[in-house]
Design a protein that fits this description.
Blueprint lengths: L2 E5 L5 E5 L20 E3 L7 E3 L11 E5 L2 E5 L4 E4 L3 E4 L12
Antiparallel strand pairs: 1-2, 3-4, 5-6, 7-8
C-alpha cells in the first residue's frame, strides 16, 4: 500500500499504511494498480480482470496479455489478422515453383 510519513512525539518519522481495504475497498483505480496481464474494470466494479477475458481476438487466434491489454496472434501454422480470423496455412509440400 501507499505509505505516508507521520511524525510522532519523539520526532522520529513513522510510516503508516493509508492504502487499506477500509479506506479503499476497490481492487484498483487505474490499470497500473493491477498485474501486467490484468486491467482495471470500470466503476463501480473496480476489479483487476485478466485482459484476455475481453472478446477481441478472432477465430483460432491466441491471446496473451501485456501492459494491461490483450494481444492477439495467430498460432504456428496459421496466417491472417489475429483480431479477425486465423486460417490454417496451406502446405507447400509437393507444390511446383517457377524459377526465374
Amino acid at each position: 500500500g501507499q505509505l505516508v510519513p507521520r511524525k510522532n512525539i519523539k520526532q522520529n518519522v513513522v510510516f503508516e499504511d493509508v492504502d487499506t481495504k477500509e479506506l479503499f475497498p476497490e481492487d484498483c483505480l487505474v490499470h497500473e494498480d493491477c498485474e501486467e496481464n490484468e486491467f482495471c474494470s470500470p466503476p463501480p466494479d473496480n476489479k483487476c480482470v485478466d485482459a484476455c477475458t475481453l472478446d477481441v481476438c478472432g477465430v483460432q487466434a491466441v491471446c496473451t496479455s501485456a501492459l494491461h491489454r490483450p494481444v492477439c496472434s495467430c498460432p504456428d501454422g496459421f496466417d491472417g489478422n489475429a483480431y479477425d480470423k486465423c486460417t490454417k496455412t496451406k502446405s507447400r509440400v509437393g507444390m511446383k515453383f517457377r524459377r526465374k
